[in-house]
Amino acid sequence: MAAFAAIYDALAERDPVAKCGQVAALALPEGDFGVPPVVEDGAGVPGRPERPALIHPRNVPHRGLGSVAGRVALLHAVAHIEFNAINLALDACWRFRGMPADYYRDWLSVAQDEARHFSLLSARLGQLGAAYGELPAHNGLWEAAEKTATDPLLRMALVPRVLEARGLDVTPGMIGRLTEVGDAETVAILRVILDEEVRHVAIGTRWFEFLCAQRGLDPQPTFVRLLAEHRVRVAPPLNREARVRAGFAEDEMDALLAAPR
Fold first, then answer.
1. DSSP letter string, 184-246
2. Does 247 reside within a domain?
3. Each residue's pLDDT tens digit, 187-224
4. Peptide bond between residue 237 and the one before it cis (omega within 30 degrees of 0)
5. 137 in helix, strand or coil?
6. What b/e readout covers 190-207, taking b as 16+ CB neighbours within 10 angstroms?
7. Is residue 37 part of a domain?
8. In 3D, which of 88, 103, 97 has the Cα closest to residue 145?
9. CATH code at 162?
10. pLDDT digits (tens, 9 = 90+) for 231-242
C-alpha cells in the first residue's frame, strides 16, 4: 500500500524537479505482492506546473533548427513529451489494478527512464539559456491517457504502441538535422532517448499481447481494429528496425500503412 501511495504522490506532484526526484526514489516490493485497491480519488492527477501554457497542437510554433531559438523550441517540445510520459507511466501503474507484479515493475521502470530523459533535456535547455515552461505546448499525450483510462488493453494499444512508437519513427530525422547544424550535445541526448524508448514500446507490446491472450484475442488484427475504431492513422515513414525490436511484426506494419486515410 505504501508503494502505491508513493506512486500516487509522484503522479500528483506539480513541480517537475520534485516529481523527477520522487520517481527516482520509487521502489516496489520484491517477488509477488498484493496490489491494493484504488483508495485515492484521483483529484489533482496528473500534477503539472502552471507553465507551459497549453494550446491546440496546430498553434504550437515551429522554427528551423539553424538557430538557437529553433533548437530551444525542439528541446522544449521533446521535454514536454517526456514530462507527460512520466505521468503516463505512473498512471499505468496507479490506474490499472489486477495485473501481474511484473506489469507494475515494468511501468515504474519506464517512469524512471522518462524522468531521467526529462532531466537531461531540462539541463540542455538551461545550457541554451532557456527553461521548461517558457514556451507553449499541447496536451495531446495526456488527452490520450484520458481516452484510454477505462481499459488497459486500449491504453497499451494507443499510447505505447502508437504515440511512443511514433517517437521511434521521427527521432532519427531530428538527430540527422541536429547533426547537420553541429548540435552534438542534443544529439547525444536524443540517441539515449531513442534507444530506451524501444524498450518502452516493447513493454507496451508485451502487456498488450498479455491482455489479448487473457481475453482470447488475436493481437495483430485486434491492434488494427482498435486503431480503426478510434480513427488513429499511422503515417509513413516507419522506423521498421526499431519497431521490430519493440515487438511489431513486419506484416503488422504493412497493415498499418495500408489502412485507409
1. HHHHHHHHHHHHHHHHHHHHHHHHHHHHHHHHT--HHHHHHHHHHHTT---PSP--HHHHHHT
2. yes
3. 999 999 999 999 999 999 999 999 999 999 999 999 99
4. yes
5. strand
6. beebbeebbebbbbbbbb
7. no
8. 88
9. 1.20.1260
10. 988 888 899 999
For residue 225, the enclosing domain spans 2-25+59-258
Query: Residue 244: is it exposed, middle or buried by C-beta count within 10 angstroms (0-12/13-18/19+)?
Result: middle
The verdict on residue 51 lying in a domain is: no
In a domain, 199, yes or no: yes
C-alpha 255/C-alpha 22 separation (Å) is: 41
**Closest-CA residue to 192 (of 158, 161, 167):** 167
Distance CA 132, CA 105 (A): 28
Give the three cell numbers for residue 124. Answer: 540542455
What is the CB neighbour count within 10 angstroms for residue 154?
A: 18
Q: Is the pLDDT of residue 39 over 70?
A: no
For the chain, what is the radius of gyration of the CA atoms?
A: 18
Q: Tell whether the model's pLDDT for residue 226 goes beyond 70.
A: yes
Domains in the chain, number: 1
Please say whether the dihedral angle defined by the alpha carbons of residues 49, 120, 55 and 108, taken in this order, is positive or negative: negative
- The three-state secondary structure class of 42 is coil
Closest listed residue to residue 7, CA positions, set 34, 45, 33: 45
Reading the block at residue 80, the C-alpha cell is 514536454
Q: How far is CA 41 from CA 2, 10, 47, 195, in A?
A: 16, 15, 14, 36
What is the per-residue pLDDT across 111-140, written as a single tens digit (0 to 9) for each?
999 999 999 999 999 999 999 999 999 888
> What letter represents residue 37's amino acid?
P
Cell for 256?
A: 498499418
Q: Is the whole-model pTM more than 0.70?
A: yes
